Amino acid sequence: MPGAVPDVTLNNGVRMPKLGFGVFQVGDDEARAAVATALEYGYRSIDTAALYGNEHGVGVAVRASGIPREELFVTTKLWNADQGAARVEPAFERSLDKLGLDYVDLYFIHWPVPSRNLFVETWQAFERLYAHGRARAIGVSNFLRPQLARLLEETDIVPAVNQIELHPGFQQSELRQFHRGHGIATEAWSPLGQGAALTHPVITRLAERHGKTPAQVVLRWHLELGNVVIPKSVTPGRIQENLDVFDFQLTPDDAREIAELETGERIGPDPEVVGEKPSGFSSKIDPSIT
Ligand code: NAD
Asked: H/E element holding 220?
């Protein structure tokens, strides 16, 4: 149902849907089909990345949808190999070319790669793209507190969003609190724990109690915490199911039960080390590096 997804207002006034569609590990053709389905069901926000190799398919689906561009919210990300003042703009132009768009709604630095120490100058190049209206908002992904602190200290624009691993098993309460204190929106990647969160007995019991599915309970939990979510699926029934989370509410007791599922364990890689090894800069990367 178009228009059903509420927005969050980012720190620069731009509105972003609180629930979008992720396309990690989806090839170009499959992305085109999945994004077309998602847009038909009412998603308006799509999250891709240069790394995913499907910006072309995403762009084809977006442009073929007939939905006015201003009603869509398209996010992509700069890959690690393209950090550095001189590389950002050409990489951004390549992404826009593949998408077939004139601007993106949100552009991310995909990983901080602290060992290369290029993220500050990379962010300054992002500030220039923003100033020229090429990206309506700019943000970071997988940034830890020390890297956010450096941007706050050394650059002009506060990131609009930090997109981080976040699911019931890894809830990131400290980083979320830091974001809140600085006007940075928290966006959850792998919001369903790549499916792992959905079989936990607490989640399945809550799903039964609310007459919803485990995925819907987990997505609702995120939304009630104030997280933006971008669940991924290529299965039409699940794509539709993941959007149908605006007709119920969790109780404070439900939220307390889910809070106890924190394990302190990531399922993805540690942002401190991603990109450290030269092999991490090639596109043939470890599939766990997302
Ligand atoms: P996710 O938590 O969204 O889980 C996706 C998996 O869960 C699917 O492959 C499917 O197996 C299962 N699933 C989805 N809906 C379901 C349903 N209704 N019922 C049962 N199972 C269901 O994991 P993800 O794809 O890793 O993350 C979502 C998006 O986040 C990605 O597509 C990508 O856009 C983004 N992401 C970003 C980064 C980053 O570094 N910035 C890293 C990983 C993912």
From this structure: helix 214-225
